[in-house]
Amino acid sequence: MAVAVTERPVMLWSGFWLTVVLLILVGSPATAATLPEDQVDMLYHRYDGGGMVIDGPSVLVRKNLGAQLSVSGQYYVDSVSAASVDVLAVASPYTEERTELTAGIDYLYQQSILSLGYTNSSENDYEANTVYFSVSQEFFGGMSTLSLGYANGWDTVRERGNESFEEEAERRNYQLGLSQVITANSLLSFDFEVITDEGFLQNPYRQNRFIDPNDPTGFEYQPERYPETRTSYSLASRVLYYLPYRASIRAEYRFFSDTWGIDSHTYELAYVHALNPRWSLEGKVRYYDQDQADFYSDLFAFENSQTHLARDKELSSFSGVTFGGGLVYEWKQTSLPGISRLQASLLLDWLEFDYDNFRDVTAPGSFPAGEEPLYSFDAIVTRASLILEY
Amino acid sequence: MIKALETALPVLALVLVLLATSGCSDIKPWVKPYERDRLADPVMSLSRHGKASSYMHHVYQSRESSRGSEGGSGGGCGCN
Q1: Alpha carbon of residue A264 to chain centroid
Q2: Which of A216, A263, A292, A317 sees the fewest Cβ atoms within 10 Å?
Q3: Structure confidence by residue, pLDDT tens digits, A312-331
Q4: Are B66 and A290 in contact (CB under 8 A)?
Protein backbone atom coordinates (compact mmCIF):
# COMPACT_ATOMS: atom_id res chain seq x y z
CA MET A 1 0.00 0.00 0.00
CA ALA A 2 2.78 2.36 0.92
CA VAL A 3 4.46 1.63 -2.42
CA ALA A 4 1.34 2.68 -4.31
CA VAL A 5 1.36 5.99 -2.45
CA THR A 6 4.95 6.50 -3.59
CA GLU A 7 4.49 5.52 -7.23
CA ARG A 8 1.51 7.64 -8.16
CA PRO A 9 3.06 11.11 -7.75
CA VAL A 10 6.26 9.85 -9.36
CA MET A 11 4.31 8.85 -12.49
CA LEU A 12 2.60 12.23 -12.52
CA TRP A 13 5.89 13.97 -12.02
CA SER A 14 7.61 11.91 -14.75
CA GLY A 15 4.89 12.90 -17.25
CA PHE A 16 5.29 16.52 -16.35
CA TRP A 17 9.05 16.29 -16.62
CA LEU A 18 8.77 14.72 -20.08
CA THR A 19 6.48 17.57 -21.23
CA VAL A 20 8.95 20.20 -20.17
CA VAL A 21 12.00 18.41 -21.63
CA LEU A 22 10.16 18.11 -24.96
CA LEU A 23 9.34 21.79 -24.71
CA ILE A 24 13.02 22.63 -24.30
CA LEU A 25 14.11 20.32 -27.11
CA VAL A 26 11.46 21.66 -29.50
CA GLY A 27 13.00 25.02 -28.85
CA SER A 28 11.89 28.46 -27.78
CA PRO A 29 13.23 31.98 -28.34
CA ALA A 30 16.32 31.63 -26.21
CA THR A 31 19.32 33.76 -25.41
CA ALA A 32 22.87 32.54 -25.03
CA ALA A 33 23.52 30.47 -21.95
CA THR A 34 27.02 30.60 -20.46
CA LEU A 35 29.13 27.99 -18.73
CA PRO A 36 30.38 28.64 -15.17
CA GLU A 37 33.75 30.43 -14.84
CA ASP A 38 37.01 28.52 -14.29
CA GLN A 39 37.54 28.61 -10.55
CA VAL A 40 38.88 27.16 -7.34
CA ASP A 41 36.33 27.30 -4.50
CA MET A 42 37.93 26.61 -1.10
CA LEU A 43 35.95 26.38 2.11
CA TYR A 44 36.69 25.68 5.75
CA HIS A 45 33.49 24.79 7.61
CA ARG A 46 32.85 24.20 11.29
CA TYR A 47 29.68 23.30 13.17
CA ASP A 48 29.83 23.44 16.97
CA GLY A 49 26.76 22.80 19.12
CA GLY A 50 24.52 20.26 20.84
CA GLY A 51 27.57 18.16 21.81
CA MET A 52 28.71 17.85 18.18
CA VAL A 53 31.78 19.38 16.57
CA ILE A 54 32.00 18.81 12.81
CA ASP A 55 34.60 20.56 10.73
CA GLY A 56 36.72 20.11 7.64
CA PRO A 57 37.76 21.46 4.29
CA SER A 58 36.06 21.56 0.91
CA VAL A 59 37.88 22.21 -2.37
CA LEU A 60 36.21 22.50 -5.76
CA VAL A 61 38.16 22.97 -8.99
CA ARG A 62 36.40 23.87 -12.23
CA LYS A 63 37.98 24.13 -15.69
CA ASN A 64 36.53 24.81 -19.13
CA LEU A 65 37.66 22.51 -21.94
CA GLY A 66 36.90 24.43 -25.12
CA ALA A 67 33.84 26.61 -25.54
CA GLN A 68 31.22 23.98 -24.74
CA LEU A 69 32.51 21.84 -21.91
CA SER A 70 33.27 22.54 -18.26
CA VAL A 71 34.53 19.86 -15.88
CA SER A 72 34.66 20.03 -12.10
CA GLY A 73 35.83 17.99 -9.15
CA GLN A 74 35.14 18.46 -5.45
CA TYR A 75 36.69 17.03 -2.32
CA TYR A 76 34.82 17.51 0.95
CA VAL A 77 35.47 16.26 4.50
CA ASP A 78 33.36 16.18 7.68
CA SER A 79 35.44 15.33 10.77
CA VAL A 80 32.90 14.46 13.45
CA SER A 81 33.32 14.45 17.21
CA ALA A 82 29.97 13.35 18.61
CA ALA A 83 28.56 13.53 22.12
CA SER A 84 25.01 14.66 21.34
CA VAL A 85 21.99 13.95 23.53
CA ASP A 86 21.08 10.94 21.30
CA VAL A 87 24.57 9.49 21.67
CA LEU A 88 24.84 10.10 25.42
CA ALA A 89 21.40 8.55 26.11
CA VAL A 90 22.20 5.09 24.72
CA ALA A 91 25.88 4.98 23.65
CA SER A 92 29.33 6.51 24.13
CA PRO A 93 30.86 9.57 22.45
CA TYR A 94 32.71 8.75 19.22
CA THR A 95 34.69 10.34 16.42
CA GLU A 96 34.46 9.57 12.72
CA GLU A 97 35.17 11.06 9.33
CA ARG A 98 33.04 11.37 6.21
CA THR A 99 34.70 11.99 2.85
CA GLU A 100 32.76 13.12 -0.19
CA LEU A 101 34.05 13.19 -3.77
CA THR A 102 32.14 14.69 -6.68
CA ALA A 103 32.93 14.76 -10.39
CA GLY A 104 30.78 16.79 -12.76
CA ILE A 105 30.49 17.80 -16.42
CA ASP A 106 28.56 20.80 -17.75
CA TYR A 107 27.87 20.82 -21.47
CA LEU A 108 26.64 23.84 -23.40
CA TYR A 109 24.34 22.55 -26.15
CA GLN A 110 22.70 25.26 -28.25
CA GLN A 111 20.97 27.42 -25.63
CA SER A 112 20.88 24.82 -22.86
CA ILE A 113 23.33 23.72 -20.22
CA LEU A 114 23.26 20.00 -19.52
CA SER A 115 24.94 18.87 -16.31
CA LEU A 116 25.89 15.38 -15.29
CA GLY A 117 27.61 14.37 -12.08
CA TYR A 118 28.49 11.64 -9.64
CA THR A 119 29.03 11.88 -5.89
CA ASN A 120 30.44 9.29 -3.53
CA SER A 121 30.17 9.81 0.21
CA SER A 122 32.02 7.40 2.44
CA GLU A 123 32.31 6.85 6.18
CA ASN A 124 33.05 3.72 8.18
CA ASP A 125 29.36 2.77 8.56
CA TYR A 126 27.66 4.53 5.64
CA GLU A 127 28.31 4.63 1.90
CA ALA A 128 26.27 6.83 -0.45
CA ASN A 129 26.44 7.10 -4.25
CA THR A 130 24.47 9.65 -6.22
CA VAL A 131 24.17 10.29 -9.95
CA TYR A 132 22.52 13.52 -11.04
CA PHE A 133 21.44 15.09 -14.31
CA SER A 134 20.06 18.56 -14.90
CA VAL A 135 19.08 20.83 -17.79
CA SER A 136 18.89 24.59 -17.58
CA GLN A 137 17.69 26.96 -20.27
CA GLU A 138 17.10 30.69 -20.59
CA PHE A 139 14.20 31.92 -22.69
CA PHE A 140 11.88 34.90 -23.13
CA GLY A 141 14.77 37.23 -23.98
CA GLY A 142 16.80 35.89 -21.07
CA MET A 143 14.16 37.00 -18.55
CA SER A 144 13.22 33.43 -17.62
CA THR A 145 15.41 30.49 -16.70
CA LEU A 146 13.96 27.04 -16.40
CA SER A 147 15.88 24.20 -14.82
CA LEU A 148 15.09 20.54 -14.36
CA GLY A 149 17.01 18.02 -12.35
CA TYR A 150 16.94 14.34 -11.56
CA ALA A 151 19.13 12.47 -9.09
CA ASN A 152 19.31 8.85 -8.11
CA GLY A 153 21.09 7.71 -4.95
CA TRP A 154 22.03 4.29 -3.57
CA ASP A 155 23.10 4.01 0.05
CA THR A 156 24.58 1.14 2.04
CA VAL A 157 23.95 1.37 5.78
CA ARG A 158 26.19 -0.52 8.20
CA GLU A 159 26.55 -0.57 11.98
CA ARG A 160 29.77 -0.34 13.95
CA GLY A 161 30.23 -3.35 16.21
CA ASN A 162 27.75 -5.47 14.24
CA GLU A 163 29.58 -6.89 11.23
CA SER A 164 26.57 -8.88 10.00
CA PHE A 165 24.36 -5.80 9.67
CA GLU A 166 24.02 -4.29 6.19
CA GLU A 167 20.99 -2.58 4.68
CA GLU A 168 20.25 -0.63 1.51
CA ALA A 169 18.34 2.56 0.73
CA GLU A 170 17.49 4.18 -2.61
CA ARG A 171 16.56 7.78 -3.23
CA ARG A 172 15.22 9.71 -6.24
CA ASN A 173 15.04 13.50 -6.55
CA TYR A 174 12.93 15.33 -9.15
CA GLN A 175 13.61 19.05 -9.29
CA LEU A 176 12.01 21.92 -11.16
CA GLY A 177 13.13 25.55 -10.93
CA LEU A 178 11.94 28.72 -12.60
CA SER A 179 13.72 32.04 -12.19
CA GLN A 180 12.04 35.13 -13.57
CA VAL A 181 13.24 38.72 -14.00
CA ILE A 182 10.33 40.93 -12.89
CA THR A 183 11.82 44.42 -13.24
CA ALA A 184 15.31 45.89 -13.65
CA ASN A 185 15.50 45.69 -9.81
CA SER A 186 13.76 42.48 -8.92
CA LEU A 187 13.94 38.72 -9.42
CA LEU A 188 11.47 36.01 -8.48
CA SER A 189 12.10 32.28 -8.39
CA PHE A 190 10.13 29.12 -7.71
CA ASP A 191 11.46 25.68 -6.88
CA PHE A 192 9.56 22.42 -6.61
CA GLU A 193 11.11 19.14 -5.61
CA VAL A 194 9.80 15.63 -5.06
CA ILE A 195 12.02 13.11 -3.29
CA THR A 196 11.21 9.43 -2.88
CA ASP A 197 13.06 7.00 -0.63
CA GLU A 198 12.83 3.26 -0.35
CA GLY A 199 14.70 0.86 1.91
CA PHE A 200 16.31 1.21 5.34
CA LEU A 201 15.59 4.84 6.22
CA GLN A 202 16.38 4.93 9.92
CA ASN A 203 19.52 5.42 11.95
CA PRO A 204 20.61 1.98 13.27
CA TYR A 205 22.02 3.49 16.48
CA ARG A 206 18.95 5.40 17.62
CA GLN A 207 16.39 3.90 19.97
CA ASN A 208 13.04 4.91 21.36
CA ARG A 209 11.65 4.43 24.85
CA PHE A 210 8.47 3.04 26.38
CA ILE A 211 7.01 3.09 29.90
CA ASP A 212 8.26 0.22 32.05
CA PRO A 213 7.16 0.54 35.70
CA ASN A 214 9.57 -2.25 36.69
CA ASP A 215 12.65 -0.30 35.55
CA PRO A 216 14.16 2.11 38.14
CA THR A 217 14.13 4.90 35.52
CA GLY A 218 10.47 4.21 34.70
CA PHE A 219 11.21 3.45 31.05
CA GLU A 220 13.05 1.01 28.80
CA TYR A 221 14.57 1.34 25.31
CA GLN A 222 13.57 -0.57 22.16
CA PRO A 223 14.83 -0.40 18.53
CA GLU A 224 13.48 2.21 16.11
CA ARG A 225 11.18 0.97 13.33
CA TYR A 226 10.55 3.33 10.41
CA PRO A 227 8.41 2.78 7.30
CA GLU A 228 10.43 1.57 4.30
CA THR A 229 9.12 4.22 1.93
CA ARG A 230 8.92 7.99 2.10
CA THR A 231 7.89 10.64 -0.43
CA SER A 232 8.33 14.33 0.23
CA TYR A 233 7.29 17.48 -1.61
CA SER A 234 8.71 20.95 -1.20
CA LEU A 235 7.74 24.19 -2.85
CA ALA A 236 9.79 27.35 -2.38
CA SER A 237 9.62 30.90 -3.58
CA ARG A 238 12.34 33.55 -3.39
CA VAL A 239 12.21 37.26 -4.11
CA LEU A 240 15.29 39.45 -4.52
CA TYR A 241 15.07 43.21 -4.68
CA TYR A 242 17.85 45.72 -5.47
CA LEU A 243 17.46 48.73 -3.17
CA PRO A 244 17.92 52.36 -4.34
CA TYR A 245 21.55 52.17 -3.12
CA ARG A 246 23.94 49.22 -3.73
CA ALA A 247 22.25 46.69 -1.48
CA SER A 248 19.73 43.90 -1.82
CA ILE A 249 16.99 42.35 0.24
CA ARG A 250 15.89 38.74 -0.14
CA ALA A 251 12.79 36.99 1.18
CA GLU A 252 12.17 33.24 1.01
CA TYR A 253 9.39 30.88 1.96
CA ARG A 254 9.34 27.10 1.67
CA PHE A 255 6.54 24.65 2.36
CA PHE A 256 7.37 21.01 2.94
CA SER A 257 5.16 17.96 3.34
CA ASP A 258 5.86 14.22 3.39
CA THR A 259 4.06 10.88 3.61
CA TRP A 260 5.27 10.44 7.20
CA GLY A 261 2.93 13.25 8.24
CA ILE A 262 5.59 15.93 8.63
CA ASP A 263 4.69 19.45 7.44
CA SER A 264 7.07 22.36 7.78
CA HIS A 265 7.42 26.04 7.00
CA THR A 266 10.72 27.87 6.46
CA TYR A 267 10.97 31.67 6.34
CA GLU A 268 14.15 33.60 5.58
CA LEU A 269 14.97 37.27 5.23
CA ALA A 270 18.43 38.44 4.15
CA TYR A 271 20.13 41.77 3.52
CA VAL A 272 23.38 42.44 1.63
CA HIS A 273 24.95 45.89 1.92
CA ALA A 274 27.92 47.06 -0.18
CA LEU A 275 30.23 49.28 1.89
CA ASN A 276 32.37 50.16 -1.15
CA PRO A 277 33.19 48.45 -4.48
CA ARG A 278 35.14 45.69 -2.69
CA TRP A 279 33.71 45.21 0.79
CA SER A 280 30.19 44.17 1.67
CA LEU A 281 28.31 43.11 4.79
CA GLU A 282 25.40 40.72 4.98
CA GLY A 283 22.91 39.51 7.54
CA LYS A 284 20.03 37.06 7.65
CA VAL A 285 17.35 35.70 9.89
CA ARG A 286 15.69 32.31 9.33
CA TYR A 287 12.76 30.70 11.12
CA TYR A 288 11.82 27.03 10.78
CA ASP A 289 8.84 25.18 12.20
CA GLN A 290 7.82 21.51 11.74
CA ASP A 291 5.14 19.09 12.94
CA GLN A 292 6.06 15.61 14.12
CA ALA A 293 5.93 12.39 12.11
CA ASP A 294 2.80 10.29 12.67
CA PHE A 295 4.81 7.52 14.33
CA TYR A 296 6.91 9.73 16.63
CA SER A 297 6.62 9.68 20.40
CA ASP A 298 8.98 10.77 23.15
CA LEU A 299 7.65 7.97 25.33
CA PHE A 300 5.53 5.10 24.03
CA ALA A 301 2.86 3.65 26.36
CA PHE A 302 4.21 0.09 26.20
CA GLU A 303 6.62 -2.12 24.24
CA ASN A 304 5.86 -2.52 20.50
CA SER A 305 2.72 -0.40 20.93
CA GLN A 306 2.49 0.36 17.18
CA THR A 307 3.88 -0.79 13.81
CA HIS A 308 6.30 2.12 13.35
CA LEU A 309 8.20 3.58 16.25
CA ALA A 310 10.50 6.60 16.34
CA ARG A 311 11.99 8.91 18.91
CA ASP A 312 14.47 10.61 16.62
CA LYS A 313 14.35 14.29 17.53
CA GLU A 314 14.50 15.28 13.84
CA LEU A 315 11.03 13.66 13.54
CA SER A 316 9.57 15.49 16.55
CA SER A 317 7.69 18.77 16.60
CA PHE A 318 10.13 21.66 16.94
CA SER A 319 11.15 25.10 15.76
CA GLY A 320 14.50 26.65 14.97
CA VAL A 321 15.83 30.12 14.48
CA THR A 322 19.07 31.26 12.79
CA PHE A 323 20.78 34.64 12.93
CA GLY A 324 23.65 34.98 10.47
CA GLY A 325 26.13 37.62 9.44
CA GLY A 326 29.12 37.89 7.15
CA LEU A 327 31.86 40.05 5.73
CA VAL A 328 32.76 39.66 2.04
CA TYR A 329 35.73 41.03 0.12
CA GLU A 330 35.45 40.92 -3.66
CA TRP A 331 38.28 41.99 -6.00
CA LYS A 332 37.37 42.03 -9.70
CA GLN A 333 40.12 42.23 -12.35
CA THR A 334 42.84 41.55 -9.79
CA SER A 335 46.50 42.38 -10.40
CA LEU A 336 47.40 38.91 -9.09
CA PRO A 337 49.04 36.77 -11.79
CA GLY A 338 46.57 34.36 -13.40
CA ILE A 339 43.66 35.38 -11.11
CA SER A 340 40.83 37.32 -12.73
CA ARG A 341 38.58 37.60 -9.68
CA LEU A 342 38.97 36.94 -5.97
CA GLN A 343 36.27 36.62 -3.33
CA ALA A 344 37.01 36.04 0.36
CA SER A 345 34.20 35.63 2.88
CA LEU A 346 33.82 35.01 6.58
CA LEU A 347 30.31 33.92 7.54
CA LEU A 348 28.96 33.19 11.02
CA ASP A 349 25.57 31.73 11.89
CA TRP A 350 23.99 31.12 15.27
CA LEU A 351 21.30 28.42 15.31
CA GLU A 352 18.89 27.53 18.08
CA PHE A 353 16.45 24.60 18.13
CA ASP A 354 13.59 24.27 20.64
CA TYR A 355 11.80 20.92 20.83
CA ASP A 356 8.09 20.75 21.70
CA ASN A 357 7.90 17.04 22.56
CA PHE A 358 11.44 15.67 22.79
CA ARG A 359 12.62 15.45 26.38
CA ASP A 360 16.20 15.50 27.64
CA VAL A 361 16.82 12.18 29.44
CA THR A 362 20.40 13.31 30.18
CA ALA A 363 19.26 16.39 32.16
CA PRO A 364 20.78 16.53 35.65
CA GLY A 365 18.35 15.72 38.44
CA SER A 366 15.75 13.06 38.99
CA PHE A 367 12.52 13.19 36.99
CA PRO A 368 9.64 10.78 36.54
CA ALA A 369 9.57 9.26 33.01
CA GLY A 370 8.01 11.71 30.57
CA GLU A 371 8.49 14.73 32.85
CA GLU A 372 12.12 15.52 32.02
CA PRO A 373 12.77 19.07 30.75
CA LEU A 374 12.16 19.63 27.03
CA TYR A 375 15.37 19.59 25.01
CA SER A 376 16.89 22.59 23.27
CA PHE A 377 20.33 23.43 21.97
CA ASP A 378 22.21 26.06 20.05
CA ALA A 379 25.14 25.91 17.63
CA ILE A 380 27.62 28.19 15.91
CA VAL A 381 28.41 27.59 12.23
CA THR A 382 31.56 29.17 10.82
CA ARG A 383 32.40 29.32 7.13
CA ALA A 384 35.62 30.79 5.72
CA SER A 385 35.51 30.79 1.93
CA LEU A 386 37.98 31.78 -0.78
CA ILE A 387 36.94 31.71 -4.44
CA LEU A 388 39.54 32.35 -7.13
CA GLU A 389 38.50 32.67 -10.76
CA TYR A 390 41.23 32.24 -13.33
CA MET B 1 -1.33 16.51 -1.44
CA ILE B 2 -1.44 14.01 -4.33
CA LYS B 3 -4.80 15.43 -5.47
CA ALA B 4 -3.26 18.91 -5.37
CA LEU B 5 -0.39 17.62 -7.53
CA GLU B 6 -2.83 16.17 -10.08
CA THR B 7 -4.24 19.66 -10.56
CA ALA B 8 -1.05 21.65 -10.12
CA LEU B 9 1.28 19.80 -12.52
CA PRO B 10 -0.86 20.10 -15.70
CA VAL B 11 -1.55 23.77 -14.88
CA LEU B 12 2.17 24.40 -14.31
CA ALA B 13 3.01 22.61 -17.60
CA LEU B 14 0.47 24.79 -19.42
CA VAL B 15 1.91 27.98 -17.89
CA LEU B 16 5.41 26.93 -18.97
CA VAL B 17 4.24 26.15 -22.52
CA LEU B 18 2.59 29.58 -22.68
CA LEU B 19 5.74 31.23 -21.30
CA ALA B 20 7.98 29.38 -23.74
CA THR B 21 5.84 30.26 -26.74
CA SER B 22 5.19 33.84 -25.67
CA GLY B 23 8.00 34.99 -27.97
CA CYS B 24 5.47 34.65 -30.78
CA SER B 25 2.87 36.78 -29.03
CA ASP B 26 2.58 40.52 -28.36
CA ILE B 27 4.21 40.18 -24.96
CA LYS B 28 7.86 41.05 -25.40
CA PRO B 29 10.63 40.89 -22.79
CA TRP B 30 10.23 44.20 -20.96
CA VAL B 31 13.61 44.31 -19.19
CA LYS B 32 16.22 44.69 -21.93
CA PRO B 33 19.67 43.12 -21.58
CA TYR B 34 21.27 46.57 -21.16
CA GLU B 35 18.93 47.25 -18.22
CA ARG B 36 20.16 44.24 -16.23
CA ASP B 37 23.36 45.61 -14.69
CA ARG B 38 21.83 45.74 -11.19
CA LEU B 39 20.48 42.20 -11.56
CA ALA B 40 24.00 41.03 -12.49
CA ASP B 41 25.54 42.67 -9.40
CA PRO B 42 26.90 39.98 -6.99
CA VAL B 43 24.73 41.43 -4.19
CA MET B 44 21.75 40.06 -6.20
CA SER B 45 23.15 36.51 -6.53
CA LEU B 46 21.39 33.59 -4.83
CA SER B 47 24.55 31.49 -4.93
CA ARG B 48 27.22 34.10 -4.30
CA HIS B 49 29.11 31.95 -1.82
CA GLY B 50 29.37 28.84 -3.98
CA LYS B 51 30.02 25.73 -1.90
CA ALA B 52 29.66 27.74 1.33
CA SER B 53 25.98 28.19 0.39
CA SER B 54 25.36 24.51 -0.30
CA TYR B 55 27.13 23.62 2.97
CA MET B 56 24.33 25.40 4.90
CA HIS B 57 21.75 23.22 3.13
CA HIS B 58 23.64 20.19 4.44
CA VAL B 59 23.64 21.66 7.99
CA TYR B 60 19.87 22.09 7.91
CA GLN B 61 19.12 18.76 6.17
CA SER B 62 20.97 16.92 8.94
CA ARG B 63 18.92 18.56 11.71
CA GLU B 64 15.51 19.08 10.16
CA SER B 65 13.15 16.67 8.40
CA SER B 66 12.66 19.06 5.48
CA ARG B 67 14.65 18.64 2.29
CA GLY B 68 14.53 19.90 -1.27
CA SER B 69 13.83 23.19 -3.07
CA GLU B 70 16.88 24.82 -1.50
CA GLY B 71 17.58 26.73 -4.71
CA GLY B 72 20.92 26.93 -6.47
CA SER B 73 22.59 23.86 -7.82
CA GLY B 74 20.85 20.63 -6.96
CA GLY B 75 21.81 17.06 -7.53
CA GLY B 76 21.08 15.46 -4.20
CA CYS B 77 23.19 15.53 -1.13
CA GLY B 78 24.60 12.01 -1.26
CA CYS B 79 24.88 12.06 2.48
CA ASN B 80 22.85 11.34 5.60
Answers
A1: 14
A2: A216
A3: 999 999 999 999 999 999 99
A4: yes
Q: Which of residues 46-75 of B touch A (CB under 8 A)?
A: 46, 48-52, 55-56, 59-60, 63-71, 73-75
Q: What are phi and psi of A43, to 5 degrees?
A: -140, 135
Tell me the ipTM for this assembly: 0.90
Q: Which residue ranges form the domains of chain A, and what is each CATH number?
A: 2-389 (2.40.160)
Q: Closest-CA residue in chain A for B62?
A: A314
Q: Do the beta carbons of residue A254 and residue A266 sit within 8 Å?
A: yes
Burial class (CB in 10 A: 0-12, 13-18, 19+), A32: exposed
CA distance A68 to chain B (A): 19
B60/A123 Cα distance (integer angstroms): 20
Q: What is the pTM of this model?
A: 0.88
pLDDT tens-place string over residues A204-248: 989 999 999 999 999 999 999 999 999 999 999 999 999 999 999
* Residue in chain A lying closest to B63 (CA): A314
Report CB contact under 8 Å: A130, B48: no
